[in-house]
Amino acid sequence: HRLKNRGSRASEALRSLCAPHKLLLTGTPLQNHVGELWAMLNVLDPARFDDADRFLASYGDLQSAEQVRALTELLRPYLLRRTKRDVDLGLVPMEETLLHVEITAYQKTCYRAILEQNRSLLLRGADARTGPSFLNMHMQLRHVCNHPFLLRGVVQAEGLEAASDAEYAERLVLLDKLLPSLRAQGHRVLLFSQFRMLLDLLEDYVAHRGFSHERLDGGVTGERRQAAIDRFCAPGSNTFLFLLGTKAGGVGINLTAADTVILFDPDWNPQNDVQAQARCHRIGQTKPVRVYRLVTRDTYEDQLYRSANKKLGLEQAII
Q1: What residues contact 101, with CB distance under 8 A and at least 6 apart?
Q2: Which residues contact 49 (CB under 8 A, 6 or more apart)?
Q3: pLDDT tens-digit profile of 153-196?
Q4: Of 253, 257, 182, 174, nearest in space to 220 by CA
Q5: SS3 for the chain, per residue?
Q6: Can you give the C-alpha Rg of the chain in angstroms?
Q7: pTM metric for this prediction
Q8: Do residues 212 and 243 lie in contact, with contact meaning Cβ atoms separated by under 8 Å?
Q9: pLDDT in tens, 27-75
Q10: C-alpha separations of 183 from 198, 211, 238 in Å
């Protein structure tokens, strides 16, 4: 992945090596823009791909079908690709449902306070030093969309320590309706988020609701990680829910015991969401897979999701 940045030290070091043959392995040859393709092609064939500006002038904007076809033909001799459908023709289908979620009045207040950098409104006049940082406003807006309790100082300022989590975030209200229905129908669920602090909140919620669950995030390693996977996948296991960090555990883990995926928040990198779905929609899956993607309507998160879709469309068109 570091090769995709042509200015990275890893990329420069590999370009200095003299080798008669080179092979690059990646599941995501294109993630953000066409320049990433040139960076890898330059490593593979520096004589032919020696000028990034000329390459980007020809293919960088991809405004026409002719450009897409020309780039695809240029890549063809260099690309060997296999998908799971090539291997298992009987792979069950996967259906994705986009659920646009509204925000509660309290979330709107917090969202406005973040945009206006108004700690007084956010914290009800409490000590501003206990509030969130506004240096990364996009991250704070994403926290509001997930659950306002993720904002530093909000719980204490509102005196909400003993309050019900669900009523302050519409996304959790939806989850509170969806999970009991899925359990009643006999489904088993993987719930993904890229935020560990959100998984902490969700773990409190599912424990309060009495849902049997496992958890895997960046802090769960080694034997504990494998033990959680084994318990969930064991024949006869009645564990209903698996909470996972979107990027935790590696892309190779097999959780085909589940048949439902909930993407609680979209990842910055859409490929991470694609790989998350593949934890259960993979060779060996015998049940149809349903994916529920939660996106907060008319917020920064909605814009992020649309941008991610454009990246996936770019890869679909070229690769």
Answers
A1: 170, 171, 174, 294, 295, 296, 297
A2: 38, 41, 42, 55
A3: 777 666 665 444 556 888 998 999 999 999 999 999 999 998 88
A4: 253
A5: CHHHCCCCHHHHHHHCCCCCCCCCCCCCCCCCCCHHHHHHHHHHCCCCCCCHHHHHHHHCCCCCHHHHHHHHHHHHHHCCCCCHHHHCCCCCCEEEEEEEECCCHHHHHHHHHHHCCCHHHHHCCCCHHHCCCCCCHHHHHHHHHHCHHHCCCHHHHHCCCCCCCHHHCHHHHHHHHHHHHHHHCCCCEEEEECCHHHHHHHHHHHHHHCCCEEEECCCCCHHHHHHHHHHHHCCCCCCCEEEEECCCCCCCCCCCCCCEEEECCCCCCHHHHHHHHCCCCCCCCCCCEEEEEEEECCCHHHHHHHHHHHHHHHHHHHC
A6: 22
A7: 0.79
A8: no
A9: 777 767 788 888 888 888 888 888 888 888 887 777 778 888 888 888 8
A10: 22, 9, 10
**Any bridge partners for residue 234, and if so which?**
none
CA dist 149 and 17 (Å) reads 50
The residue written with tokens 């928040």 in the block is: 265
Record the tokens describing residue 158, joined without a space. 């509102």
Query: Hey, what are 126's tokens?
Result: 């409490």
Q: How many CA atoms lie within 13 A of 80 on its CB side?
A: 3
**Is residue 316 left, alpha or beta, with left meaning phi > 0 and alpha meaning psi from -120 to 50?**
alpha
Task: Please report the domains of the chain, with CATH numbers, ordered by start residue.
Answer: 2-81 (no CATH), 85-100+169-307 (3.40.50.300), 105-158 (no CATH)
